[in-house]
Amino acid sequence: MAKYLLLGVLATAFILPMRGEAHTDMKLLRDTACEFETRGESRPDKARGKSDERGFCQMRPSTARQMGFKGDLALLERRSEAKRLALKYFYYCARRLRTDNPARLLHCYNGGPGLPWKGLGRARKYAADVLTLYRQAKAAHVIARLKLYREVWL
To answer: Going from the N-terminus, what domains does the chain have, and what CATH number goes with each?
Structure first.
């Protein structure tokens, strides 16, 4: 009986996604990338990059404006605004590249959509590093869901 219950939990967790889960992977990817961008910063919301990247997700003002941002650049230091724009940029990359491959999306996020997939080793290394963290976070997310289902069903 327990074996069939576990199979039901696994089927529910992996095969039948929860409502609204189409965005979960993209949001998790965004959160992982933003955490990676500001690692080690004492005040990640106020972080500044070498190329004028700003805020928690280290987005350039020109990229933010391309994503429809209007207003004072200080707003890019708000975590909610930075995360909103970063998610919008990940969706932009997905449409532009016609893929939902996390490695390609991270490559686009770091190097821009015009960067060839094979080009710029720095963006490829960035994508590989963040993808490792993303997979760990995704595994932890699935385990947490399994524990939730176990508590509900048992």
So the answer is: 21-153 (1.10.530.10)
